[in-house]
Amino acid sequence: MTAKTCVVTGSSSGIGRAIAERFGEEGHNVAVNYRSSREGAERTAAAVEAAGGSALIAQADVTDIEAVQRMGEKVHREFGSVDVLVNNAGINQDVKFTEMTHEEWDTVLDVHLDGAFHATQTFYDDLAASEEGRLINISSIIGKGGNFGQANYATAKAGMFGFTRTLALELAPKGSTANCVAPGFIATRMVEDLPEHIKDQIREDTPLGRLGTPEEIAEIVAFLASDRSSFITGEVIDANGGKDL
Fold first, then answer.
1. Distance between CA 213 and CA 80 in Å, rounded?
2. What pLDDT band is residue 245 in, cutting at 50, 70 and 90?
3. Regarding beta strands 29-34 and 134-138, do their DSSP bridges make them parallel or antiparallel, or are they unpaired?
4. pTM for the whole thing?
5. Nearest one of 215, 160, 207, 209 to 187, comparing CA atoms
6. ∠ CA(150), CA(8), CA(24), 5° rounding?
């Protein structure tokens, strides 16, 4: 298998870390992006290299276009052109809409949507020129169904769908693809910190009766990043245990 160069934003923990490590298992070069958790990024990079890949720690706040461009320059110096970009960076600031401040609205949309725009714009030419360019955006079940107290998060995640489908059309003449993964409730810190009775309710409402794992999402991303997915583009892949059935 030919090593690819992959950038995973927000990969110091959770789903991003699992994706980066999975790419490492395939022997890829992985740029481990983080905003503030250098220690977490170092753990991810160590896991990538232990799995058989090469890792580069790349700090950048994805809401800052100049920082993302500097990250791009660093990745190009170390690994060359990028084949796979995973827009995974995200945050939540949950509050009822009637109590939500403009700052809380902007902050969440900036990370998810401006962050995806900045990273994709930085690496677009690489993806278009790659023989197997892959843009993969990480959205959420919340983008489809909404959720109480998450108007900002739901809007941001829904925006990823339109962004993905448009980029799929624009990348298609180059032979590259863009797809989106919409996880359900995954056993990351964001979910694990919820009160136990809420987690019990989530499990009860999920036909498979459990939370998903970051590794399960990483497997889907690894497939979409591979040549096995070459005729799939513009799709939103649900991975939610059947919760929206």
1. 32
2. low
3. unpaired
4. 0.96
5. 215
6. 130
**Catalytically active residues, by annotation:** 153
Q: Domains along the chain?
A: 5-182+214-238 (3.40.50.720)
Strand partners, 137: 87, 180
Q: Per-residue DSSP letters for 18-54? A: HHHHHHHHTT-EEEEEESS-HHHHHHHHHHHHHHT-E
Q: Which residues of 151-188 are buried (b: 16+ CB within 10 A; e: fewer)?
A: bbbbbbbbbbbebbbebbeebeeeebbbbbbbbbbbbb
Taking only the tens place, the pLDDT of each residue in 2-61 is 899 999 999 999 999 999 999 999 999 999 999 999 999 999 999 999 999 999 999 999
Among residues 131, 142, 31, 35, the alpha carbon closest in space to that of 85 is found at 31
Q: How wide is the angle at C-alpha 4 spanned by C-alphas 123 and 238, nearest 5°?
A: 75
Residue 148 identity (one-letter amino acid): F
CA distance 127 to 24: 19
Task: Quote the tokens at residue 69.
Answer: 């461009």
For the chain, give the number of residues.
245
Closest C-alpha among 177, 187, 92 to residue 142: 92
CA atoms of 35 and 15, how far apart (whole Å)? 15
d(CA 71, CA 7): 10
